[in-house]
Design a protein that fits this description.
The structure is a homodimer. Chain A is built from 11 helices and 10 strands. With about 300 residues, chain A is α/β, with parallel strands linked by helices. Chain A has a single domain, classed as Divalent-metal-dependent TIM barrel enzymes (TIM Barrel, Alpha-Beta Barrel), CATH 3.20.20. The two termini of chain A are about 25 Å apart. At the A-B interface, loops of A face loops of B.
Chain lengths: ~300, ~300
């Protein structure tokens, strides 16, 4: 864990105590499993419960490790809401056979999302195929995949959530680069079937983001938070910071998400080698404290 | 120099010979001094001339090393056009005294740009002040600085060129993140006084970029090129690649710049440790070859 001081941008005093279980400020806080990446699904569920959280975002791989049925039973018995399943997507290959495999895999992910009773399935769009520089074509393939998958998702009662990603990942991970662009891709579909993920790390810099969040309205299927830190760690995939350690002003961003009508859980998703090196309980305590100071007051 | 093969996205055969001095494909190619960062101004001028270029983009520091008057004389005598002076800007500090110093420094940069007869002064907006997370306020300070500087620039016959920067730099270098946003900032001013820099590295991912380039029209004061490479080098400031080594499709981007009416020089600006480690003449030869294959045919 970084030893950085909490520098609360709003000027309010930072709390020194971690919110105890039952603290109302925890009511919508969700642990995305990747924030405690060293933990199994069982450990993540138990850790979330120990900290008094009421929601968790799960990943398919740790779910598969114990089997879908067991995972679903554990989650049901835990009383935790499942705020999202990560992840489907990766629609952009230029080989039709590979895209067909991706569609099949996304259908399986939709089934899993239904079985877990999760609020949405997060879709990471995918990057440019190797040696292929046609970005508009890759973006069109995302639209095509949504058109293919939306009816199936609807039939399973699952909400898809397309994740616009920071342009740092436009080449190799996510060709959808702004919330405005994600909304255009979602537009042909019902908001209850195709929504968007709003992640501060990806969108904090987007010009006009507050107006675009208002426009997003009931398309917002998931609100994920973490910070943009500098200098960027060498591995950009691990460049997300704990809220308060970086440059993002969570107050106005969160106010805009709330004003748009979002009433769901708020997931902390942090890919960061330092965070992962800390004991999971410490990570959850830090994230709960930062969330209570920097995010919850503005929901 | 990277040993990567030229993989020409358009499908045309890559040329194996470097364009010789006099080759018409070199007519608008400009060497930005930072691409041959190990060279002094004198060495850069001589290198550009040896390669048959007709234009150069200069930096203020190497100009200052020899003195403005000497630099201006050398450039005049060389017959090279000066496609840009890098750089002014850094307008975003939240301390009024520091901003005042920045304005003074930009006035000096405007004087230097006039003395060098350069096509424009590139303005790097500046990042968030330390500990300050108010991105909209930082962006407003850029607008304020432009309003302060534009009359002075006009009186000196100098064109300012605001540079929108890849969001990877939004926190620490450039709070103007899209071409669309740069155009909004330029809007209150005459196109001949406040234009924009179009740099492929910064803008290749921008949704709707071709339409926004058309809208930019005679605001385009500079076209700078280099590639977006992955994995991103550990130092993001040095993450620019030689054209053809990365993911950018230069053909449609360049066509859109040309269709917008841009008739100026095309500057190659590459910050990259591998490029800098190569002999300058080799770097220029590679950039000329890649430019002739990937960019010049679409101008």
């Amino acid at each position: 864990m970084s030893a950085a001081e909490v520098d609360v941008p709003s000027g309010q005093p930072a709390r020194t105590n971690t919110p105890a279980p039952g603290d109302p400020s925890l009511a919508r806080l969700s642990l995305n499993q990747r924030t405690t990446a060293e933990w199994s699904l069982r450990e993540s569920i138990d850790g979330a419960l120990r900290a008094g959280l009421s929601s968790i975002g799960v990943w398919r791989e740790p779910v598969a490790d114990v089997g879908l049925e067991t995972a679903a039973a554990w989650l049901r018995d835990s009383g935790l809401r499942v705020s999202s399943v990560c992840r489907g997507g990766f629609f952009t290959d230029n080989d039709a056979r590979v895209r067909k495999q991706a569609i099949d895999d996304n259908r399986a992910a939709i089934d899993e999302t239904a079985a877990l009773g999760a609020a949405c399935l997060v879709l990471v769009p995918g990057g440019l195929p190797t040696g292929d520089r046609d970005l508009p074509a890759a973006r069109r393939r995302v639209a095509d995949a949504l058109a293919t998958l939306a009816p199936y998702a609807e039939s399973r009662g699952v909400r898809l959530a397309i994740e616009p990603m920071n342009p740092i990942f436009a080449a190799d991970r996510g060709v959808v680069s702004t919330l405005a662009q994600a909304l255009q891709l979602a537009e042909p579909h019902e908001p209850g079937v195709v929504g968007v993920v709003v992640d501060t790390f990806h969108l904090w810099w987007e010009p006009g983001i507050e107006a675009t969040l208002a426009e997003a309205s009931d398309r917002i299927a998931s609100y994920q938070i973490c910070d943009w830190i500098t200098p960027l760690p060498a591995d950009t995939l691990l460049s997300r910071g704990m809220m308060g350690d970086g440059h993002i002003d969570f107050a106005p961003f969160t106010r805009a998400v709330a004003a748009a009508g979002y009433t769901g859980d708020v997931e902390v998703e942090i890919f960061n080698a330092d965070v992962w090196a800390a004991p999971g309980d410490d990570t959850i305590a830090t994230m709960a404290r930062r969330y209570a100071d920097l995010v919850a007051p503005y929901l």
